């Protein structure tokens, strides 16, 4: 039985696009001084040789202050030799690792020598190498051929350990508590502690994506599953250059499941358009850039069929069909100004306008579909506007890699929603509406200090965030309105977070150590309309430490073992505590909870990586313990079939499993990448009280389930053509009140390099097998849902570089 289980695990491990290293090359630096008087010695010949066979690697000479730097050195064991007329030669052994891009070798002290030394001639080439500190994975969007021309959300689903769940939620190793960053910063475009608009960020604007499973103390403590960092493109070639592109697609190619009777048709053959333009001008000390994208994506955004069963014997069958038109304009511009070799200033601004029109139908039938009790139709008219302004100053000290970075960021995000409902009942028709206006203001100030050491580096910094979100909800009830108009009004979200961190990195020939501590204070106030029938003002404060430790042993140049520990937090986002009921589903109603508290997570991980000439293997075991698990809990009111899903802290939960990532070049023209995650999710027994619309208690027993996901990507390269096929499988999983079903899909694409550009074509979910299924159990009811939203899409595009 044990052998069978092991074979089953191994057969499940599949993966995706090629891993790249985070720190591939290192800059060594130091200073040469005289033993006699302690003064710097200029124009000393510095030679770097391999320790094993004294082979020449690279060289340089010291400047007027006796300082030197040797860039682009790969990991390994070396010897540095210093030679100059009038001085005895000085030598020092050096170990170059994978943790720090800069190493300060300190002082090289040279004694006087009256004998003349021969002139040293330096010749050779710099070595190249690839390494990885096992805490993150980096992927170039351009290599994801099967998702070219799509959104960031679509590109993410083919990356290792990532799955996309209900409502476009990104899950990393089975958890949706992921912090999404843009260029290393949180913005309203990607969400402060949540995920927003990822499906409306064009992948054409992105250079690469980093998946950070074990963030260090220099990152915000938010996000227990880890961090996904989206890096925007920015050219820095000399002169004027640019790129113009056009991608088009066709979705909803067939009706995967027919509508319930008497509602408006589903969207079919939806046309997607994505023109893009990137411009860059660099001359001497100034670099100016611009990037603009337009995304037109009509789609069958949701097509969910739900069967609800009640202990009373009632059965309700419903469908939520949402035809969505989305138009997104995104522009990013900025400039980099290098005053001198020590000081530089960068400024940038991003503007995004996202216009959404949803036309939805939601019929409700009896079990046999012979009687319709209600038809709920809605029009959502939503405009999301985001403006981000950033300025960063960098001072470089004389020692390479010795830096001071100061940044100031401001983000404004407006959510302007209008919903118009038509409530068609057997004996009357009602017209209802609401308007929501929410303005988000976020100010971030941060300072980061980096100091290279001989065997690593020191990092430290401070950060201050002020965040304000005033929200106003107005309900306009119609005839016999089912809307709770008294639950409207205003609410003000106010958040202040100062934080300080320190991080130390040490590395020698055999060992690596990274240890850091982030201390974070938060003061959150949520003031609500005093006339609200259920909720009152609430909030919380805390001062908490968030440590991280990583220890690694380098077995040899190709084998490394690492162990990790960190503590992180998931703070409820403003929409999680928002007090207004949401009626895009008229009978499974979502609402926030202002009494919601943060969940805290402790994570342990052990990783092993090995490589060979044509491939590599990475394996990890991990475990997370979550206190105060945040989730939605559904309850009903006696005598009613309406279900109210309210956010709650549902006690302790655990996630433990293993990950395997394997890549192999089978032939010069054929490569395969496989990734797999198998994990065990556990939710301890818990009991919570939902207050809206009336008090009700829900209690759950302990739940445990083995789950996982697997991916395989095959790449064929012939001349200037690349063809990629990606298969993705997600096993059934549990949530605190039920479980999700399995999912499977296959994507394929091809790309052709042209003299001044590239041409691509691809298709997603080739066989229409991707369906999101869920079963939820509550006191007095349970329901099953299946979402046949738009997953099949063909795209083609062309980009031209100049």
UniProtKB/TrEMBL annotation:
GO molecular function, one term: siderophore uptake transmembrane transporter activity
Record's bilayer topology term: Multi-pass membrane protein
Listed name of the protein: TonB-dependent receptor
Keywords for this protein: Cell outer membrane, Membrane, Receptor, Signal, Transmembrane, Transmembrane beta strand, Transport
Residue ranges of every copy of the TonB-dependent receptor plug domain listed in the record: 147-227
GO process annotations (BP): siderophore transmembrane transport
Xref: Gene3D superfamilies: Carboxypeptidase-like, regulatory domain, TonB-dependent receptor, beta-barrel domain, TonB-dependent receptor, plug domain
Signal peptide: 1-21
Domain Outer membrane protein beta-barrel span(s) in chain numbering: 395-799
Pfam families listed in its UniProt record: CarboxypepD_reg, OMP_b-brl_3, Plug
Subcellular location: Cell outer membrane
UniProt GO cellular component terms: cell outer membrane
């Amino acid at each position: 039985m044990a052998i069978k289980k092991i074979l089953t695990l191994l057969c499940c491990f599949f993966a995706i696009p090629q891993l790249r290293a985070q720190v591939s090359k290192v800059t060594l630096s130091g200073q040469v001084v005289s033993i006699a008087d302690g003064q710097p010695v200029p124009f000393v010949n510095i030679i770097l040789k391999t320790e094993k066979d004294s082979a020449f690697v690279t060289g340089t000479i010291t400047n007027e202050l006796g300082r030197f730097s040797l860039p682009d050195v790969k990991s390994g064991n070396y010897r540095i030799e210093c030679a100059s007329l009038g001085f005895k030669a000085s030598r020092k052994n050096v170990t170059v690792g994978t943790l720090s891009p800069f190493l300060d070798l300190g002082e090289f002290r040279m004694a006087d020598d009256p004998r003349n030394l021969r002139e040293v001639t330096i010749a050779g080439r710099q070595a190249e190498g690839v390494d990885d500190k096992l805490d993150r994975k980096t992927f170039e969007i351009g290599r994801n051929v099967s998702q070219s021309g799509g959104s960031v959300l679509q590109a993410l689903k083919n990356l290792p350990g990532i799955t996309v769940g209900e409502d476009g939620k990104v899950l990393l190793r089975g958890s949706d508590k992921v912090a999404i960053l843009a260029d290393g910063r949180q913005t309203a475009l990607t969400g402060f502690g949540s995920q927003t608009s990822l499906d409306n960020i064009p992948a054409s604007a992105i250079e690469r994506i980093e998946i950070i499973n074990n963030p260090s103390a220099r990152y915000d403590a938010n996000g227990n599953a880890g961090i996904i960092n989206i890096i925007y493109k920015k050219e820095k070639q000399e002169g004027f250059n640019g790129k113009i592109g056009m991608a088009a697609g066709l979705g909803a190619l067939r009706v995967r499941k027919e509508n319930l009777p008497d509602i408006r048709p589903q969207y079919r053959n939806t046309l997607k358009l994505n023109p893009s333009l990137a411009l860059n001008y660099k001359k001497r000390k100034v670099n100016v850039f611009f990037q603009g994208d337009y995304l037109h994506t009509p789609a069958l955004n949701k097509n969910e069929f739900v069967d609800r069963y009640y202990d009373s014997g009632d059965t309700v069958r419903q469908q939520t069909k949402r035809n969505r038109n989305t138009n997104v304009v995104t522009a990013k511009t900025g400039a980099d100004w290098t005053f001198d070799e020590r000081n530089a200033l960068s400024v940038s601004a991003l503007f995004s306008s996202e216009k959404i029109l949803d036309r939805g139908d939601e019929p409700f039938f009896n079990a046999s579909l012979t009687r319709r009790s209600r038809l709920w139709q809605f029009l959502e008219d939503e405009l999301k506007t985001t403006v981000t302004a950033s300025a960063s100053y960098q001072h470089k000290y004389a020692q390479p890699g010795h830096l001071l970075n100061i940044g100031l960021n401001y983000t404004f995000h407006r959510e302007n929603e209008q919903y118009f409902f038509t409530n068609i009942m057997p004996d009357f028709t009602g017209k209802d509406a609401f308007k929501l206006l929410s303005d988000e203001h976020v100010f971030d100030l941060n300072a980061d200090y980096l100091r290279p050491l001989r065997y690593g580096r020191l990092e430290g910094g401070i950060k201050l965030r002020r965040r304000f979100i005033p929200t106003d909800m107005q309900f306009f009830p119609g005839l016999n309105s089912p809307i709770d108009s008294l639950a409207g009004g205003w609410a003000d979200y106010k958040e202040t977070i100062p934080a300080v961190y320190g991080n130390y990195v040490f590395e020698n020939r055999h060992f690596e150590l990274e240890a850091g501590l982030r201390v974070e204070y938060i003061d959150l106030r949520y003031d609500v309309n005093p006339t609200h029938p259920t909720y009152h003002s609430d909030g919380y404060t805390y001062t908490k430490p968030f440590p991280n430790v990583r220890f690694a042993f380098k077995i040899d140049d190709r084998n490394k073992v690492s162990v990790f520990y960190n503590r992180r937090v998931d703070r409820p986002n403003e929409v999680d505590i928002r007090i207004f009921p949401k009626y895009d589903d008229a009978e499974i109603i979502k609402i926030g909870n202002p009494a919601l508290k943060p969940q805290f997570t402790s994570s342990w991980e052990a990783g092993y990586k090995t490589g060979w000439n044509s491939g590599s293997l990475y394996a990890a075991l991990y475990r997370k313990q979550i206190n105060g698990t945040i989730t939605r809990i559904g309850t009903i009111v006696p005598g009613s079939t309406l279900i109210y899903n309210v956010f709650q802290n549902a006690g302790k939960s655990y996630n433990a499993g293993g990950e395997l990532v394997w890549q192999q070049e089978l032939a010069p023209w054929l490569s395969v990448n496989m990734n797999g995650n198998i994990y065990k999710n556990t939710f301890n027994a818990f009991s919570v009280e939902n207050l809206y619309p009336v008090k009700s208690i829900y209690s759950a027993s302990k739940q445990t389930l083995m789950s996982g996901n697997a991916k395989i990507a095959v790449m064929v390269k012939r001349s200037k053509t690349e063809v990629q096929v990606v298969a993705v499988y997600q096993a059934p999983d549990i949530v605190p009140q039920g479980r999700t079903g399995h999912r499977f899909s296959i994507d394929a694409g091809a790309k052709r390099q042209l003299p001044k550009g590239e041409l691509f074509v691809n298709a997603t979910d080739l066989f229409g097998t991707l369906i999101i299924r869920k079963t939820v159990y509550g006191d007095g009811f349970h329901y099953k849902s299946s979402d046949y939203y738009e997953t099949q899409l063909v795209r083609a595009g062309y980009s031209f570089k100049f």
